[in-house]
Design brief:
Distance between the termini: 122 Å
Number of helices: 3
Radius of gyration: 39 Å
Largest sheet: 5 strands, antiparallel
CATH architecture of the largest domain: Sandwich
Structural class: mainly beta
Strand content: over 45%
Order of helices and strands: HEEEEEEEEHEEEEEEEEEEHEEEEEEEE
CATH class of the largest domain: Mainly Beta
Strand order of the largest sheet: 9-10-12-16-14
CATH superfamily of the largest domain: Immunoglobulins
Number of strands: 26
Length: about 350
């Protein structure tokens, strides 16, 4: 009986002690900032609480889950029936994307530990034009002066663009100049009159029907600023493309009648005296049915000049002539490459290695 009485007494004491403790209650324990912009800086929210107990409430510690979140809170004791607040500030700088943070509150309340939460999504700040357009072209600025259109099927068009920006305080005029020989590269200026902090585009489209070229092509366009035309590297834009033949629609019958290229791909020629030119030829045979069209024979090496033959009939041969100019070459051994592009659907591109010695 004594044991039952003792247990009952202790329970009553505990209830009495709890009744004398502070009790912390919050109006809300979670806040959603929604979408916030990184460039707008810190955002804050107040979590108000009330002491619904019978003794003063003291917050001994308020701790955030990371350094990007900073809490400040009521430091003085909060009397029964009174309110206090915890201000939680989030710093979005350098933290794009969604976030969710926890703030832990420790106090002398009957529930010693409470938590509140913040969440949201940081929209990353946009890079300023001055940070992206770092290549000067007269009074204008660009990200790059090179545009590579990649592979373009013969008979088709392909377009691309190069952006330019006016980072000055004055208005400027933008235009383009291309050589007449490069007219197959169509060009247009999206914003001929560009105001301060405006961004325009140089638009290019290669018209493969307007050129006989196959393989890699490179066109230079020159930016004209405020009517001033300067054909120098400072104003030069480079547009590249690789014109390829489309064999995907060939029928079985067409493939059976197609030309077939037979050629040697490696040549070693006689020694060449320094400063002299040397010509040599290598044959190409068509062992197919239809004529073998030599779309292009070329070398990217300036020391080599390549001349291609006309169409080669079935069973016949044609010669590719290579003129090697050793002027400017030191004595020694060299290997150079000639590329031959044909309408042979199975092997449209052939590469020929040429070895020679300058003495």
């Amino acid at each position: 009986m004594k044991k039952i009485f003792s247990t009952l007494f202790m329970a009553l004491v505990a209830v009495a002690m709890t009744a004398q403790q502070p009790v912390i209650t919050f109006e809300k324990t979670e806040h959603d900032f929604g979408k916030i912009h990184e460039e707008d800086g810190r955002v804050s929210v107040n979590f108000e609480f009330k002491n619904e107990g019978m003794a003063p409430l003291v917050l001994s510690n308020v701790r955030a889950s990371c350094g990007c979140t900073t809490p400040t809170w009521t430091k003085e004791p909060v009397e029964p029936g009174q309110t206090g607040s915890i201000t939680v500030t989030y710093n979005p700088n350098g933290r794009p994307g969604r976030f969710q943070k926890t703030v832990t509150i420790t106090s002398n309340a009957s529930e010693a530990t409470k938590k509140v939460y913040i969440k949201g999504e940081v929209i990353p700040k946009q890079a300023k034009p001055v940070n992206r357009y770092t290549v000067p072209v007269g009074a204008l600025s660009m990200k790059t002066k090179t545009l590579d259109l990649g592979n373009v099927k013969k008979g088709e068009n392909k377009s691309g663009e190069l952006e330019y920006a006016n980072l000055t305080k004055e208005e400027h005029q933008a235009d383009l100049f291309l050589n007449a020989a490069d007219a197959y590269m169509i060009n247009q200026v999206s914003l001929p009159t560009v105001k301060s902090n405006e961004i325009g585009k140089f638009l290019f489209a290669i018209d493969t029907k307007a050129t006989k070229l196959y393989g890699p092509v490179e066109v230079n366009a020159y930016v004209v600023v405020d009517g001033k035309q300067e054909k120098t590297d400072d104003y030069k834009l480079t547009i590249k493309a690789n014109i390829v033949e489309d064999f995907s629609q060939m029928t079985v019958e067409e493939k059976q009648q197609a030309p077939i290229t037979e050629m040697q791909n490696d040549f070693t020629i006689a020694k060449i005296a320094a400063g002299k030119n040397h010509k040599f030829s290598f044959p190409i045979k068509n062992s197919g049915v239809n004529p073998l069209e030599i779309r292009r024979a070329y070398s990217t090496d300036k020391a080599l000049t390549v001349k291609q033959p006309k169409a080669i009939k079935s069973g016949k041969k044609g010669n590719v002539t290579v003129d090697i100019n050793t002027k400017g070459l030191d004595a020694g051994s060299y290997t150079r490459e000639v590329v031959v592009i044909t309408n042979d659907y199975a092997n449209p591109i052939q590469k020929v290695q040429i070895h020679f010695t300058v003495e």
